Automatic annotation (TrEMBL):
Name of the protein described by the UniProt record: Carboxypeptidase
Residue numbers annotated as active site: 285 (proton donor/acceptor)
SUPFAM superfamilies per UniProt: Zn-dependent exopeptidases
Annotated signal peptide: 1-21
Record family assignment: Belongs to the peptidase M14 family.
Originating species: Metabacillus elymi
Lineage of the organism: Bacteria, Bacillati, Bacillota, Bacilli, Bacillales
C-alpha cells in the first residue's frame, strides 16, 4: 500500500514537473522545428520551408485553415525576441486543435478558417535566436573573436538582435531603407541595416513568401513595451479601415497604439508590407519594457492571455474585406 501511494505520488510529481517545464522552457530553434513538424503531422497542416538562414537553418511557415485568402503572422525577427515564438506556437496549436474538432475558441467560430487561412512564420531569425540563447562557445576561436567584436567587446550575447552575420533584419526591407539614420556602419549585434535591402537570406525569403501568398493583413510580433505600431504613410483612403483593425487589437491586448511622426523612417517588415500591398500591418510589441535583452519567461502567460485571440480577430477582419 505504501509503495503504491509512493508510486502515485512520484507519477503526479513528474507530471506536474513536465507540465511546468512545457510552459516555461524557452523555444530554441530545434525545439520549435520539432514541435512545428509534430503539429503539422497531427493536424494535417500545410508546412513549407520558405528558405534557409545564413547558417542553413530552415525558415518554416505553417498554415492553419483551408481558406483561399490568408493573413500572415511572424515572430522572432530579432534574436532576443524569442518570446514571440512562444505566443505564435501557442496560436498554431490551439487554433489547429479547435479547427479540427470544429469547436469555437474564445468565443470565435473557427469556421472563419474555411474562408481565411492563417500563415505563421514563428522564427524569422533562427541564427540570431541561437546566438542570443546559447552564446558562441561552440564556434571556432577565430570566429568567437569576430562575434565579440560585433558585440562591442561584450562576451554576454543576451542583447543580440541581429542575424548570424550581424545584420538587423527589421532594418532590411525596401521601404525607406536609404533614409535610415543612426545605424551601425558595420555588422553588429543590433542596428546594422546591411549594404542593401533584402541582402539577408532571411528577409529575402520572407518577402518572397509574402509575395507568394499575398495576405490581406499581417502582424509582426516583437518585444518589448506593449505597443502597437501600424502607420507607415498609409494611403489616406485606407486610414480609417486600418485604424479600425488596430483599435480592435489594442482593445483586446490592452496595448497602447503608437502614432509615429510624419517623417517616420522605415526599413521594417510592416513598413514594407503597408507600402507594397496597401493593406494593414501591425508591429505588436509584447511584454513590459525591458532593456537590451529578452523579456523573462515569467511574463509569457500574461502576454498569451492578451494575444490569444489576435489571429482570429485579424482573420475576421480579412473576411470582411473579402465580402466588402
Amino acid at each position: 500500500m505504501i509503495k503504491r501511494i509512493f508510486t502515485l505520488f512520484l507519477v503526479f510529481f513528474l507530471w506536474i514537473s513536465h507540465a511546468h517545464a512545457s510552459t516555461t522552457e524557452m523555444y530554441t530553434y530545434d525545439r520549435m522545428k520539432d514541435q512545428i513538424n509534430s503539429l503539422a503531422k497531427t493536424y494535417q497542416l500545410e508546412l513549407k520551408t520558405i528558405g534557409q538562414s545564413e547558417f542553413g537553418r530552415d525558415l518554416l511557415a505553417v498554415k492553419v485553415g483551408n481558406g483561399s485568402n490568408s493573413i500572415l503572422i511572424t515572430g522572432s525577427h530579432h534574436g532576443r525576441e524569442w518570446l514571440t515564438t512562444h505566443v505564435i506556437m501557442n496560436m498554431i496549436e490551439q487554433y489547429a486543435s479547435a479547427y479540427e474538432e470544429n469547436q469555437s475558441l474564445y468565443g470565435h467560430n473557427l469556421n472563419i478558417l474555411d474562408q481565411i487561412s492563417i500563415w505563421f512564420v514563428p522564427m524569422v531569425n533562427p541564427d540570431g535566436v541561437t546566438i542570443q540563447q546559447e552564446g558562441i562557445k561552440e564556434l571556432p576561436l577565430l570566429l568567437q573573436d569576430i562575434y565579440i567584436d560585433m558585440n562591442k567587446g561584450n562576451e554576454d550575447f543576451s542583447r543580440w538582435k541581429a542575424n548570424g552575420l550581424g545584420v538587423d533584419l527589421n532594418r532590411q526591407y525596401p521601404a525607406g531603407w536609404e533614409r535610415i539614420e543612426g545605424s551601425q556602419r558595420y555588422a553588429a549585434f543590433s542596428h546594422y541595416k546591411g549594404q542593401k535591402p533584402l541582402e539577408a537570406k532571411e528577409t529575402l525569403a520572407l518577402s518572397s513568401f509574402t509575395e507568394q501568398v499575398r495576405p490581406l493583413a499581417s502582424a509582426s510580433y516583437h518585444t518589448s513595451g506593449r505597443l502597437i505600431y501600424w502607420y507607415y504613410f498609409n494611403e489616406i483612403e485606407h486610414l480609417q479601415r486600418d485604424h479600425d483593425l488596430i483599435e480592435q487589437v489594442a482593445n483586446k491586448t490592452g496595448y497602447e497604439i503608437s502614432y509615429p511622426p510624419a517623417n517616420a523612417i522605415g526599413g521594417g517588415y510592416t513598413d514594407w508590407f503597408i507600402q507594397t500591398y496597401k493593406k494593414p500591418a501591425l508591429t505588436i510589441e509584447l511584454s513590459f519594457p525591458v532593456e537590451e535583452t529578452n523579456p523573462p519567461l515569467s511574463v509569457l502567460e500574461e502576454e498569451w492571455q492578451r494575444n490569444k485571440e489576435i489571429g482570429l480577430i485579424m482573420a475576421k477582419y480579412a473576411e470582411s474585406e473579402v465580402l466588402r
